[in-house]
Amino acid sequence: MGVKRVLESINGLVLAAMYGITILTVVFRVILKIPASWSEELAQYSFIFLGFIGAAAVMEDEGHIKITVLVDRLSSRTQKFLRILGRILMLSFLIPFTIGAWGNVKLNWTVEIPTVAWMKIGYMYLVLFLSGLVMIFYLLRNSFRELKGGKV
Predict the structure, then answer these.
(1) CA distance 65 to 58
(2) CA distances from 75 to 33, 46, 146 (A)
(3) pTM of the model
(4) Which residues, including other chains, have CB under 8 Å from residue 52's CB and lie 6 or more apart?
(5) Which among 125, 132, 127 has a CA at the least distance from the CA of 56?
(6) Tens digit of pLDDT for each residue in 122-144?
(7) Please, is 39 exposed, middle or buried when counting C-beta atoms within 10 Å of its C-beta (0-12, 13-18, 19+)?
(8) Which of 103, 100, 105, 99 is nearest to 126 (CA)?
(9) Collapsed DSSP state (helix, strand, coil) of residue 54
């Protein structure tokens, strides 16, 4: 099983958990008349996990949303240059992002979320850190493949 498949499977589980948490929130609040502050917090963190894990998964085949109307009209050499330039710009963001996420993992590993004592804030930063590593890996791999003349 490849990395992308693992990420997609994790995302499926996170989405199912987020759905279940949201249903529980409604049941507790509307039917049982018991406010459940923990459920809202967990749903928010699940949404963050979903976004970053999903971003890492689609980076393998460069499946992010892009508008190519102008780029499609350029020569293949210019298109290749712009793709590599785009990856360099993404790396210039992802490298400090990933380093910062690791710093926050270490800093917040034992800090509890007030409404969910068993969940630490460091877990969220760990997801950001791992997603950043995966995205950096895919960007570098795709760049080297393209520079060698291969298909991305």
Answers:
(1) 10
(2) 63, 42, 16
(3) 0.86
(4) 127, 128, 131
(5) 132
(6) 999 999 999 999 999 999 999 99
(7) buried
(8) 105
(9) helix
